[in-house]
């Protein structure tokens, strides 16, 4: 029996190879697009879970202080200002910012239930203790140093603005 000449099948094998190459490239593009969408979804879920935790915490604090008059701090809000800056070196990713907000909010929860008019001395003490404090966050244990920029009391809410910068690894 004779071996058939492969010159007859050269066009077919070239077309089949191009088809398989296109299928692999298309699958890679589709996988990268779906990975990007999934990552965006996870970031949105993390942000919404943080909002839910904050709201549940606020609800428990408000029910605890509902019999008090309007001169007691009932909620603490923390804002990290680094993402507003256009420097890519000082901006934080969303998950790190959310973890940093939780940690700073936990430290400032000592003001909950305090009278608004008697908070001046305590705020200076807290500002000196928490200013330039280093927080260790994330799976890779990166260290971030915060700096308290502004503390503002409006009605029954304490609002704190901080900036954070990553500590160099020694």
Unreliable spans are none
The geometry reads as elongated
Strand order of the largest sheet: 1-4-3-2
Could you tell me the number of beta strands? 4
Share of helix, binned: 40-55%
| Domain module tally | 2
The largest β sheet comes out as:
4 strands, mixed
| Count of discrete alpha- or pi-helical segments spanning 4 or more residues | 3
Structural class: alpha+beta
Percentage of residues in DSSP E strands: 15-25%
Q: Which radius of gyration do the C-alpha atoms yield?
A: 27 Å
Q: Output mean pLDDT.
A: 83
Order of helices and strands: HEHHEEE
In whole angstroms, the N-to-C terminal distance is 74 Å
Give a structural overview:
With 170 residues, the chain is of the alpha+beta class. It folds into two domains: 1-64; 70-166. Helix content is 48%, strand content 19%. The chain is built from three helices and four strands, in the order αβααβββ. It has a four-stranded mixed β-sheet with strand order 1-4-3-2. Strand 3 and strand 4 (157-166) form a beta hairpin. The longest helix has 55 residues, at 10-64. The termini are far apart. Residues 87-165 form the Sporulation membrane protein YtrI C-terminal domain. This is Sporulation membrane protein YtrI C-terminal domain-containing protein. Keywords: Membrane, Transmembrane, Transmembrane helix.
């Amino acid at each position: 029996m004779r071996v058939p000449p492969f010159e007859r099948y050269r066009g077919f094998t070239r077309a089949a190879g191009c088809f398989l190459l296109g299928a692999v490239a298309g699958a890679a593009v589709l996988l990268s697009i779906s990975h990007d969408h999934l990552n965006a979804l996870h970031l949105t879920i993390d942000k919404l879970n943080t909002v839910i935790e904050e709201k549940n915490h606020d609800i428990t604090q408000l029910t605890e202080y509902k019999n008090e008059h309007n001169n007691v701090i009932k909620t603490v809000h923390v804002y990290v200002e680094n993402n507003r800056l256009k420097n890519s070196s000082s901006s934080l990713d969303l998950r790190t910012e959310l973890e940093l907000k939780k940690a700073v909010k936990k430290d400032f929860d000592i003001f909950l239930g305090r009278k608004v008019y008697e908070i001046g001395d305590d705020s200076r003490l807290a500002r000196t203790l928490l200013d330039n404090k280093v927080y260790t966050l994330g799976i890779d244990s990166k260290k971030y140093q915060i700096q308290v920029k502004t503390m503002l009391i409006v009605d029954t809410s304490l609002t704190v603005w901080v900036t954070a910068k990553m500590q160099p690894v020694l």
